[in-house]
Specification:
191 residues, mainly alpha, 5 helices
C-alpha cells in the first residue's frame, strides 16, 4: 500500500474514532445525570457499559494514532529524501554552471572567441563580471593576432539560431574602396 493511501485511511479512522469518543462521552454523561436524578440502577449500568465502550474506543484511537504517526514519519522521511535529492541535483547543476561561467570569463579575458550564448550566460550570471571580461577580451585581441575559438560549454542546451555577431562581422566583406594609407614617420622614430 502506498504511504498516501495509508495516511488517508488512518486519518479517516482517526476522524471516526474521535467522533465516536465524543458521542460515547456525551451518552455516558447523560446516563450519569439520569442516574443521579432518578437513582435508577439501569442508568448506572448503561453508564458502566458506555465507560467500557469509551475505553475500547480510546485504545483503538491510540493504536490508530501509533500507526498514523509511523506512516506520517515515513512520509516525512520520503519527502525529505526526495527534496534533498532534488536540491543536490540543483546544487550540482549550479556548481557545473559556475565552473562553465568561470571558464568563459577566463577565455574572454585571454582574448579568445567564445560563442554568444556563453557570453550571454556570463552576462546573466554577473553583469559587472561580463563587462570586465569583455573589456579585457577587447584589449587582449588588440595585442594578439591569433585568437583561439571555443565551442560552447553549454552543448546540452539548445544552440542559438543567431550566430555570434563578432564572427559575422569578421567574415563580412567590406563594401567600397580600401585606399592605401601612408603613415608619416615622426621625428622621434628616426633616431
Amino acid at each position: 500500500m502506498k504511504i498516501g493511501e495509508a495516511r488517508s485511511i488512518y486519518y479517516s479512522n482517526r476522524r471516526e474514532l474521535t467522533e465516536q469518543k465524543k458521542a460515547l462521552h456525551a451518552q455516558k454523561e447523560k446516563a450519569d445525570l439520569a442516574y443521579k436524578a432518578t437513582g435508577d440502577s439501569k442508568y448506572a449500568d448503561d453508564a458502566a457499559v458506555l465507560e467500557l465502550s469509551l475505553e475500547n474506543t480510546q485504545k483503538a484511537f491510540d493504536e490508530n494514532q501509533k500507526v498514523l504517526d509511523s506512516v506520517t514519519d515515513q512520509w516525512v522521511n520520503a519527502f525529505n529524501m526526495e527534496s534533498t535529492r532534488q536540491q543536490g541535483e540543483a546544487a550540482e547543476k549550479m556548481g557545473e554552471d559556475m565552473v562553465k561561467v568561470m571558464t568563459v570569463f577566463r577565455r574572454m579575458t585571454h582574448g579568445d572567441i567564445v560563442p554568444m550564448q556563453d557570453e550571454k550566460k556570463l552576462m546573466e550570471y554577473d553583469q559587472k563580471m561580463y563587462s570586465m571580461a569583455k573589456n579585457m577580451q577587447t584589449m587582449a585581441q588588440q595585442l594578439e593576432k591569433e585568437r583561439k575559438k571555443h565551442d560552447s560549454l553549454w552543448e546540452d542546451e539548445e544552440k542559438p539560431v543567431n550566430p555570434d555577431p563578432a564572427e559575422v562581422a569578421d567574415d563580412t566583406e567590406y563594401n567600397g574602396p580600401l585606399p592605401d594609407i601612408d603613415i608619416p614617420v615622426s621625428a622621434g622614430a628616426e633616431e
